[in-house]
Amino acid sequence: MDQQVGKQSLRFTKAPFILESASMGGKKEGEGPIGHQIDVVGEDDRFGCDKWEEAESTLQKEALTLAMGKAGVKPEQIRYLYAGDLLGQTIATSFGLLDFEIPLFGVYGACSTAGESLGLASMAVAAGYADLAAVVTSSHFASAEKQFRFPLEYANQRPLCSTWTVTGSGAFLLCNEDFLRKREKKPQGRGVRITGITTGKIVDYGVRDSMNMGAAMAPAAADCIYSHLKDFQRDPSYYDKIITGDLGAVGQEILIELLRQRNVDISGNHTDCGLEIFDNEEQGTGSGGSGCGCSAVTLSAHFLPKLRSGELKRILFVPTGALLSKISFNEGQNVPGIAHAVVIESEG
Which range is the signal sequence, renumbered to this chain (predicted)? Predict the structure, then answer.
């Protein structure tokens, strides 16, 4: 069977398993609707560190350590590590994962990094380039605000369309069938595989408001989902859930409308990680959550358990990213978006 499907997609003949995962969250995330499902929630957002960037590095380090502990594997067993964050030169990743001494592919896809990293790791495992690979992504509200917007001390008023950067990290271990078969310790519940991916394109609708990430990213999500359904010749109903990463309430409305204009209706089975992780009204998070950690934490803590239990059979996971920097924004450039789709299915 040809693994190349359509123009942008892959269908894996040897689909990799998600062996284990782990999630870390901040205090606000722990108070949200899925807070009780997050593996470790910090008492505050510093995680014992003096600097926000160090705190984010700690999130990545602890998330990967926890995932390896759950799976009973050691760093030397991991062939490749795919990881990234929102900070310049991905410094949360560089300093957080330094001591593991695992060959690293540093990944930057803005808030879509979890989807991009899972896609790349899946390709490596499915092709036989790695028996075991790891994926780690993170974001931190304070470090992201410091880099992209205003110092926290500025206490600026946030518009209702803005999203709240999630303080959190998600780590995933992907393996092939041979690696899983040789193990004495098996994952609890049903096996979960990544059976295909659709790599997204950069999409620019001319949005320039850096406080409205949902509007900037929704066109890219619509393009990626439409391309995925076309490549695989599937209807949206094929999936129990189509899950975007970071659009929030504003972006969700735009996404559904853009797809309806293409005669695709996902309103019945769409949700967004940014809407799952926070209660917007109770927690004052504006339109919802965003950041590299948003989709990673929500997938690990909330959706993977549903796949392992059989409550969900098949999901399309579509993290979304806004490709801006302080320089591009200050120079008046648009905010292009990108999204990457990952097909995740439970066995049985």
Answer: none
